[in-house]
Amino acid sequence: MFPVCLQAQHPVTFFNQAESNAVKKDLARFPVLRTSYGEIRKEVDAWLGKDVDVPVPKDPAGGYTHDQHKANYTLMFNAGILYNLTGNPRYAEMVRTLFLKYATLNPTLKMHPQATSSSPGHLFWQALNDANWLVYTGMAYDLIYNSLSPADRKTIEAGAFKPEVDFITKDLKSWFNLIHNHGVWACAGVGIVGLATNNKDYVDMALYGSDKSGKSGFLAQMNGLFSPDGYYTEGPYYVRYAILPFYLFANALQHARPELGIFNYRGEILRKALLAGLQQTNTDGAFFPINDAMKEKDYTSNELVTAIDIAWEMYKGQDKGLLVVAKKQGHVLLNKGGASLAAALATTKNIPAGYPYKTVEYMDGVKGDEGGVSFLRSGSNDDLTTVIYKYTSHGLSHGHFDKLNISLYDKGHEILTDYGSVRFVGVEQKWGGRYLAENKTYASQTIAHSTIVVDERSQFDANEPASEKYHSEKLFSAISNPALQVIAAKEDHAYDGVQLQRTLYLLRLPNGKKLLTDIFLTRSSQEHQYDLPFQFDGQLISTSFKYKAAANSQEAMGKKNGYQFLWKEAEATVNDTLAQLTFLNNRTYYSISSLVQNKASIFLTRTGANDPDFNLRHEPALIFRRTGKDLSIVNVVEIHGDFDPVAEFSTNSHSSISSIQLLQQDEEFTIATITVDNKKLLIAQCNNNVSATVTHSAKGINWTGPFYVTYDNQPLH
Can you tell me the distance from the alpha carbon of 299 to that of 308, in angstroms, rounded to the nearest whole number? Predict the structure, then answer.
């Protein structure tokens, strides 16, 4: 462990006095800094001289008392900043008055009346929000520390802070020590309060866990939640949430404990985490909905403003892509990082319109040996196509049962979708803004994703501890050729006695057409039912198969494992054919083509069955159902055509794929030909030897490495 040497100088958490003085000078120089200052001052000034309510907690998220306490800690923090930037004692007095109210309230609080989890809060329904309160009020206290009398300090520290810190570190000790985004907030809250109050005990617990052994605490969070390349195990939505306490506490430690070198810790893991998080966003800045996720969250959120501004200063503007995001955010922190970024925005010419997205692959797990996730990208800006292939570990309590799941984004739109989470954050009517029951019973179940479901059971029978024991395994990838990107992974544990292997090829043909070729293999000694859903967003245009629509009445697809929430809208039975469905999303057509060998059932479904409270979005899916032991399923997702509703013009609305043939399918090789625009696309892959140097020969084809692809007898380039 590092030696402890707290600095008693204040302020020390959000900024120090020298930085505050520099920001004052820069306010007149840089527009975005001046605008940000004006926004905060307008909000805070509206409350000067008014009595701010500190109510007895009673409401869940979205209710009055919840929102009031949240507004209070934001107001206190911002008023503390303004006190330092203006010297106006009225700002400090506002914060002092609120603190004295909390010093009276907090010692009286017991478990929140709306608490429903194993980590209940006092001020809020869950302790996570209490930790949020500590983060911001800790900084607020530090910002006005010099204005307070010794008597006020004693009252506030004993009344407002100690009950909360004791509650979190003692009563909720196991939660405080948990390696999880909640634990990050808890450590940051206790640690920032410790720095603000010159309390070595608090800081030590924050850094090294409640017993100060180093097995938990802030450094253990930095070790345990990220892979070596910065992937956050709970997914991009949760790195968005956790990145703020990571950066705010690290920022405070950089001021008070510079000897820790916190921003260099574990090979600059905080920088890697931020950049990895940004790469896991769509062109509109929205975080990809991996695991439990709200699709509305994007990189203009307060969490990313905080992280980017601090990172810009701490890492000396190493990544110019941050300027793209900062320009879209339109405001900055009122500290050294924000001022530095505001200066860069004011002086840098020709900042690109879009973030520099690229094909990236991230490992999962502390050592990077627990699977991973690939983001294959083709094109740029408005014509960017992104394929997400998830072969990670479970993802802690926010993980989904979706090994080998895929999603597709194109031209800024979600095409093959992932439901994300069932939650209405901040909406009191929807169970206090908490996760709804359908989050577990539908959204996390396998059928809610675009991956195979065996015998209508979710992977690991939807048992989180069982899923946490295993991860999928990446077999190989090749991503250097923009015309041919490939990734293969396998999953051997999701279903007893069933091996699953999926290989994705994101192809760009010489004429510019983009195809996602998807080869899904199943291996088992027993016969099973295999459902392969494609969750899609769009209006059905046409199918190559005749179906019977449930025009007058509908029934659910099943009774459990998520099937109970799917209306069976149409059904078809097909034999030995190429089954195709075309749908329209925005102004582009998309076709899913699947080779059906022998017999298959096809279902068109929509969420909403057994949902009397209308908690679910009503979204469509195409499900292919096959039975057998060893299956080789070849699917192609084709991007084609253009629809102009204004000019009433439509081009290339029909799929250009006329056939899919399997030339060989066995344990050793899968060789397929796909006729596209009357030309042959050949894909040959070795299924059991992924060495890049081994030469293979099958069906008169010779190649080296795990795969071989040609179009019209020519390699793609």
Answer: 10
Do the Cβ atoms of 206 and 341 come closer than 8 Å?
Answer: no
Q: How many domains does the chain have?
A: 3
Domain limits for position 72: 47-220
| End-to-end C-alpha distance for the chain, whole angstroms | 52
**Per-residue pLDDT at 3:** 33
662, pLDDT greater than 70: yes
Q: Is 363 left (phi over 0), alpha (psi -120 to 50) or beta?
A: beta
Which of 330, 356, 382 is at the close of a domain? 356
Would you say 190 and 168 are in contact if contact means Cβ atoms under 8 Å apart?
yes
**CB-based contacts of 251, cutoff 8 Å, min separation 6:** 13, 14, 310, 314, 335, 337
- The C-alpha atoms of residue 390 and residue 386 are separated, in whole angstroms, by 13
Structural domain includes residue 592: yes
Model confidence pLDDT, tens digit, residues 266-279? 999 999 999 999 99
643 and 611 within one domain: yes
Is this structure's pTM higher than 0.90? Answer: yes
Catalytic machinery residues: 238, 398
pLDDT of residue 8: 58
Whether residues 546 and 401 share a domain: the answer is yes
Mean pLDDT to the nearest integer, 588-610: 97
